[in-house]
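> run fold CXCR3 protein
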Amino acid sequence: MKDLRRYLVLKYIQYLVLSSSNAISTFLGLLGSLYTIIILQSAKVSSKSTAVLISSLAKADILVCVSIVSEMVVWTFDASISSTAFTSAPLQNLLTANTHISCLLLSCIAFEAYLITFFPMESRHLRTVKNARLTSRIIWTLVTAECALFQMNDLLKASSTSAPTRSPCILLFNFSSTAAALLRSLSYFLGILLRIVNVYFYYKIFFSISNR
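> ok
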């Protein structure tokens, strides 16, 4: 459990403290996720809701691995690759999905820690493995839909120069651009809100433990 706590501290620093990820934090995060996935396979780790959320958090770094491998492929075979599947926009969307999934899961873990500290008996029916798995699926589904919208907007933007000005694609492009812009703004303000909420949760937990 000490290793899992260290992993959570690393992830909080990477996604909720640092303004943006850098090479060092990304590398340490990937190593921590790999180690955490191995730990969670051990029979010594009980299958609880927190473990389910941490497992989903660690698996989110698979998106980072895919992005890094894809960038290496593009860099190595740049002259022979022309498919839009390997352009920078899809790779950036993968990193965006990783960041958003990680922030939401970290916030769920913080909220669960808050419930365990202040409402251990009252919240027991909420802190179940079934609910943790459902929460993880909902987060992955919502973020996948978000990045699908971003990707569609990027594809329409790339093809808008060759499309006729009266083409129905223009209406779709305008709609996707507006929706993507609103969603990016919402994600930005939600990220700020999650940082504030997480600070509040751990502030209350820290002083509660200190008073004991």
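DSSP finds seven helices and no strands in the chain.
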